[in-house]
Amino acid sequence: MTKPSTLRIGSYNIQKCVGLDFRRQPQRIMQVLHGMQAEIVVLQEADKRLPPRPAALPHFMLDEAGWQIVDLGGAGSLGWHGNAVIWRGDHIKVRQTGHHDLPGLEPRGAVRVEFDTQIGPLRVMGMHLGLLPASRRQQITHIRHCDASLEQMPTVWAGDFNEWSRQPVLDNLAPEMHFLPPVPSYPAAQPLGALDRIALGYGVEAADHGVHGERPAHIASDHLPIWADLRRMV
């Protein structure tokens, strides 16, 4: 459990709640979310693919477990472009939300939520980047420009970056962001690739970070969730 001076953020590609056994079982995703002990979680593939893109993880399950869902404007969806943000705890409040269309051959997007938290104001950018290297480079550059146009605030980028390279390819495109050391999160049964990443900007640092591999995370999705315990820089 996080200390009062820290805040745990997680990122999880839930693959529309379809596990490695090809069964759609949202309750397994809920078990994993509970085990992560995070206060804010960025989700990818949170909605079904075809319009009107209904939520793959039912709203009522999150409600019953005490999670709040950030309203990102998708009627019936959990998020926007499959990206969603959930949080829990009376000490966290949503200030403002937004989303950004991302360039590239595939339709991709990023979501933005600004919170008041126990470690102060925090901007969370959630994203699921493209499969093509050129698209990922364009998307990181676009997100960086979007971020720079906003009021300066401690910032976290989190999501499925789809980058297999062990070299700091994306890191070099956003030198003002500190990408946490990669931890293998894909495929869930035998993680090899650090596709899921967290990057920290101005005013915030990680006291600890890692990957959550406790059961049933090994089968609930094709990705394992990652997490970081954040604190304000002094």
Description of the molecule:
This protein is α+β, with helices and mostly antiparallel strands and 234 residues long. 16% of the residues lie in helices and 32% in strands. The protein has a 6-stranded mixed beta sheet.
List the helices and strands and how they pair.
Blueprint: E1 7-13, H1 26-36, E2 40-44, H2 59-64, E3 68-69, E4 84-87, E5 93-102, E6 108-117, E7 120-128, H3 133-148, E8 155-160, E9 178-179, E10 196-200, E11 204-211, H4 217-220, E12 226-232
Parallel strand pairs: 1-2, 7-8
Antiparallel strand pairs: 1-12, 2-4, 3-4, 5-6, 6-7, 8-10, 9-10, 11-12
Summarize the model shown:
With 234 residues, the chain is an alpha+beta fold. It contains four helices and twelve strands. The radius of gyration is 16 Å and the shape is globular.
Question: Strand content of the residues, in percent?
Answer: 25-35%
Based on secondary structure, the structural category is alpha+beta
Percent helix among the residues?
10-25%
The strand order across the widest sheet is: 3-4-2-1-12-11
CATH topology: Deoxyribonuclease I, Chain A
What is the fourth-level CATH superfamily?
Endonuclease/exonuclease/phosphatase
What count of structural domains? 1
Whole-angstrom Rg: 16 Å
In CATH terms, what is the architecture?
Answer: 4-Layer Sandwich
> Stretches where pLDDT falls below 50 for ≥5 residues?
none
Total count of helical runs of at least 4 residues: 4
CATH class category label: Alpha Beta
Number of strands: 12
Distance from N terminus to C terminus (CA atoms, Å) equals 22 Å
